[in-house]
Structure formats: structure tokens, C-alpha cells
Design brief:
Alpha-d-glucuronidase, C-terminal Domain; 34% helix; TIM Barrel; single chain; 18 helices; binds alpha-D-glucopyranuronic acid; 668 residues; Chitobiase, domain 2; 3 domains; eight-stranded parallel barrel; alpha/beta; globular
Length: 668
Amino acid sequence: MSKTPWTQLWLDYKKVNSKGNEGYVSNVSLEGFEAEHPIIKNALAELALGVKEMLGQEISVKTGPLEQGLVIKKETTSPDLEGAYRLAEKSGKLTLLAGEESGVLYGVFHVLRIIATEKSLQGADEKKSPSQPLRMMNHWDNMDGSIERGYSGRSFYFRNNEFFIDERTRDFARFMASIGINGIVINNVNVKDAATYLITERYFDKVAELSGLFAEYGIKLYLSLNFASPLELGGPKSADPLNEEVIAWWKEKMAEVFTRVPKLGGFLVKADSEGRPGPFTYGRTQADGANMLADIVKPYGALIIWRCFVYNCTQDWRDYKTDRARAQYDNFIQMDGDYHDNVILQIKNGPMDFQVREPVAPLLGGLKKTNQMMEVQIAQEYTGHQIDVCYLIPMFKEILEFKTYIRKENDTVADIIGGGLTEHRNLNTGIAAVINTGNDIYWTGNVLAAANLYGFGRLAFENSLSAKEIAEEWIRQTLSNEDEVVEKVLSILLPSREVYERYTSPLGIGWMVTPHVHYGCSVDGYEYSRWGTYHRADHLGIGVDRTDKGTGYAFQYNEPNASMYNDIDTCPEELLLFFHHVPYTRVLSTGKTLIQHIYDTHFQGVEEVEAMISCWQTLEEKVPAEYFANVTERFGRQLTNAKDWRDQVNSYFYRKSGIPDEKGRIIY
Ligand code: GCU
């Protein structure tokens, strides 16, 4: 089916009903842009490819005025954000206006998207400007080719500690540009072994080559950095950020790096986290560490993106006072305002670790004077390993729309990471996703998981899109434009996160996963471990008391959120067990007791998976055969997983509580 040994994802450019679009894209003219500019060249090549494959037509490119067709024109007056564009149609002429080349590229992909989804270009009148200035993908690829939390094969960048750059890499850059991604971190945040040498002679040529390729698609390449590099690369025997010798070593190192890789965007740093070295080792602050590096890379226009995933991972489960959920905030709030302007703090969306349901991290809405980026995970580490379907865009929308009450208006997470907290828009803000790709032919293991890859980029560029609109675009471009397919696949994708939630851990408590692997159920898997991830279930109830009587976590939020979470009667029910220790007999808003809620949702979740499978089966003749087979196989495994979760969770809580299911269903 596919034209390459890997699929073309949503850029498959299937034949479409032209909807009268052909006249707009046969003649193309450039005004104010150079046809030879690498980004423009790629934009035009993409347009030619898409138009040929979808409409069976060649395009011709000229300079100068045009009566009919597509005029790509430089807008010189607009102070818009990089990547912005306008598309307007009038009397057979389509005008694409942009301030710079990346806007042209995104605009061309938008035109192709309109054609691919069988909409009409006639009457187009749209202005698009990216919602988040930085829209990044974070690969967790190791240089031996393995991928930390990767569920789609191995790395397509690295093999046996060497780079691998080929047509597939170029296709990947196209896919990313088509959804507006402008930054990619290529290596795992846990920087060890060969990856430490990415900033040495051993890899400069390859890093430069890849950054050059990305740049042709408007994407900056970033590296994850080992904070202990001086020690490991033969420099001073310390990584103390205030030590003069260490600083001098980094200065020399960065001068070398940016001479050899001038297009490098900067570095992502995981320090003092899960065994990685950092400033705390030397009694210094996170700001000391981040600022030292930031000052050194500043002359090169580069950024230091500093992760806030700093917590005690050697906790004693007997200790009820320490609360991992508090850690990001406690470790970073005091130094608000101390971080230099090319430092960005990268904050996970929740206070724990990418669970299917968590409250929004209170650091987002806590920090007032610090550049921030939010990190989400489309790699389905805790949400089904791309075996189970779990469309995450509805969850990301909820998070973006969350009101932090950091100020009276424009206080949502989207406002903060869109740079709206400052008088002039702060461009050192954004959103990053831990990516779900690998070298498997479908890129994302489960074909349906590509909806998250696509959706993340689309949402980051345009926060106002709904999860449904995004899914529909993806379905039409990837699977089929037939309405029946669109409706049915929407009915699978849209509720899939809540379905996953129903058959796994209830009401925001999270975890209960097989340790280390994080797929499959193990209710007590992490209960007596050092990781700080406990459910605290006993024979009377379950949940973690994070109120003023417990760990006090609820008060990391601004009011009225703090009081809302603190009070069991106003706490949103889907997060009840995250904030409160609750008796099994408590009656919920549905009129059911907590224990009955647990039983019912787990039975329901499995039934919903069965219904999804039946729905998918009806599409056999309607979607590409390989895709059908891929998803069918995954669904088989999802059903086994869901049943396992249902039976383990229900049996566990029945045995703990001794309270039978009202409906008398089988519990073991
Ligand atoms: C999770 C994940 C790790 C990862 C870490 C991180 O804990 O399981 O594999 O390294 O997050 O975000 O740094």
C-alpha cells in the first residue's frame, strides 16, 4: 500500500474529490520570497507532490502577478509571530500571506489539508498564528537504538551508537512541519554513555547534518545534555555550577559546539532527577545550574530548557508526610524570577507522572516571573503502550483550558504557556510532547496512536481546535474521507481516554500498574516501593489525603482552586481519590457508593472496549487493509488487558472491603 517502506501517515495524499479546488493550485506565483530558499523549495515540492497525487495535476511556478491560482506573498507589515499566515480567496485567486518562510510552509500544508479533507478553497478567509510559540517534540531515544518508553520499534535516528539519517528522516521532518512543530529534541533526557558525546567531535558532523535537514522544514534541533559532562568528558572533576573551572570548561565546550553546529536551538536538561546529576549534588540551586548554562549559550541565541521533574525517588512508603505530588512546586517556586531570560522551565502537565487522570501541576499558575513550557506525553507509557487506544487530545484540551487564577483574566494554562503573562508576548514559552514514534512501519505502533502525534501538533498550533475537529482531520487524511468511516472512528477515538480510565485506576488515584513496565494491572505494584506513588487502600477506604489535614498539597493552588480541592464536597469527583482518603461507602453524585462506582466502571470499561471492536470490525472493506489488520490485532490485546484490569481491580477491592457488587456479577 505505502509508497515507502514506512507509511506516509496523514500525508498519504490519496485521490480525492477535488471539490473544484484544482483551479487554485495549478498556477503558483511567488512575490517577495525566493524560490531557492530551502524552506520555500520544500513547501513548493510538497505542494507539487500533494496536488499531483490528490488531484492528478502538475503545478507551474512563476514570479509576478497572477489572475487565477495561488499567490504566495511576503507580508512586510505584520508583527505576527513566526509561522503565522493568512489565506484568502477572491475571484479564483488564492493568496497566502506570510511574514517569513515558515509561515509559507505551514500555509501550504494547510492548503493541502483542505484539499485532502475534501473541503473547498473557495471563499477561504483565515488567519492563523501559533498559540504556543515553541511547539516541541521530545524523543527519548538512546544512541544504541533503544527508546525509553518507546512502543513503536526502535529509534530511527540512532543505531549501534551511530546516527542514521536518510529519506525516512526527511519524511519525519515533513510530517512534523505539516503540523507546525518547530523544535525537536532528538535524544533521551536520561543522557548516558554515547549520548554524553553528542557535544563532542565524535558526532558534530552528524548533529550538524540533521540540524540542517530540520532547518529546511523550519525546525530547530535540540539536544538533551548531561549536567555531569565536565566530569565525564575529561574536564574538571566537578560539575558544580559555581566553580570557575567548571564554568570555563563549559564556555570552551559551547564555543566548540556552536561553531560546529551553528543551527542548534539549545539544550534540554534533566538534573537532580531519578539519579541524574545536578546542582543539588553541590549544594547549589536549580537556578544556579540553569543560569550558568544559559549565560554561556546566550551569545549563540540558544535556550536552556530545564525540567522540573525533581522529586525524592527514594521515599519510604511508611512516611505519610512526604508527598511526591508536592515536589515540582516545592523545588521550583521559591526561585521564581531568578531564572535568566533564555531559561525555560519545562513542567509536566500533572504533579505526578503522566497518569490517565491527574490535576494540573500547580507550578503552572504558581510561577509568575519565569518562562514556562508544559510537557505532555503522547508516548502512552501509562495509557496503554499504543496497544490500547487512548486518544489524548481531549485531556490536553482540558489542561490547556484549566483556570489557574494566577490573575483575574487570561489565566488559563494556555495563556501561561502561550506567553501571555507578560506585557509583551513572551516567546520563550511553549509546549512539548514526549513523542510516540519509532522505526515501525506505522511510526506509532498502533495506527490509531498517530492521531495523538498529529493532534498534539495541531493543538499546539491552534488551541481553539476541538479534539473532534482534530480527530476528524486526521481520519480523513489517514483512513478515508467516507462519512461512515469518519463517524465510526470518531466514536472510537473520542471517548477512548475515558474508557481506558474506567477499566484502570479509579478517580484520579493513578498507578496500580506493573512496576517498571507500566502496562497491565498490579494494584499493589508500587504500594510498598520507594517511588512515592501510593493509593493507601485499607478495608475502609482508599485515596491520599492531600488536604490541610494531610500533605497540604491542595494549597499549592491559587484560590478558589485550593479550597475547592481541599473540600471533599466540592472536589471534582474524577479527582476525588487524588485529594482525599474516602470510605468505600461514601455516596457519589451518581447516587452510587464509591465501591459500587469502582465495580460499575470496570465492567463498563470492558463492555465499551467490546463495542469499539465491533464498530471497528464493520470498517474492514473501508479502510486500508494493513491498517485494518494492525488495529484489529491491537484491539485483541486491549480487550485482554481491559479484562485483566477489571478482574484484578474488582477482586482487590472486594477482598479489601468485603462489600459485594449490588448487581451480583462475577468477582474473583
Ligand atoms: C518517567 C519515566 C522515565 C523517565 C521519567 C522522566 O518516570 O518512567 O522513564 O525517564 O519519567 O520524565 O524523566
